[in-house]
Specification:
By secondary structure, the chain is mainly alpha-helical. The protein has helices at about 5-25, 40-65, 70-85, 90-95, 100-130, 135-140, 145-160, 165-180, 185-190. The two termini are about 25 Å apart. Belongs to the TMEM175 family.
Amino acid sequence: MGKGRLEAFSDGVIAIIITIMVLELKVPHGDDLAALVPLIPVFLSYVLSFVFIGVYWNNHHHLLQAIRYVNGRILWANLHLLFWLSLIPFVTAWMGENHLAAVPVALYGTVLLFAAIAYFILTRTLISHHGEDSTLGIALGEDLKGKISIVFYVLAILLAFVNSWIACAIYVLVAAMWFIPDRRIEKTLTQ
């Protein structure tokens, strides 16, 4: 079957996720800049999550540009990814509202970890369907960046109980690693 419905559905779900996140930003009580200070952790959590959702949307788009068809396994793998992404607004709000406390920061990382695993499963399912010698299979290869991300998430989850700021710094590092779209796919598509 074609990939059009998968793309449209995924784009819609991701748009809703972003909308839910922005609705969690509450207007402060007060009319001066000091009223914004307590909202700094909430806003920083939102920015980080917005970047992550943007990274997933961008890289998901690139994945789907490298394939032609989907099957039932791919649809389920994609839904698995969307499930974990749909939890990001909840953990973002909890982390921000609790000023980056250890447990919310660790749970945030756990959701990011499972989203990364789901993305990895989606890529492997796509490659399985299209072949190791497909455009996507060639472009991703061993997917070292995906594997490194998973290791960083596990490390950050554990470090959240030592220092939540270090864990958040690792989340920022992973987001920065993925911020630029996967050039491997772009290079392979243009060749």
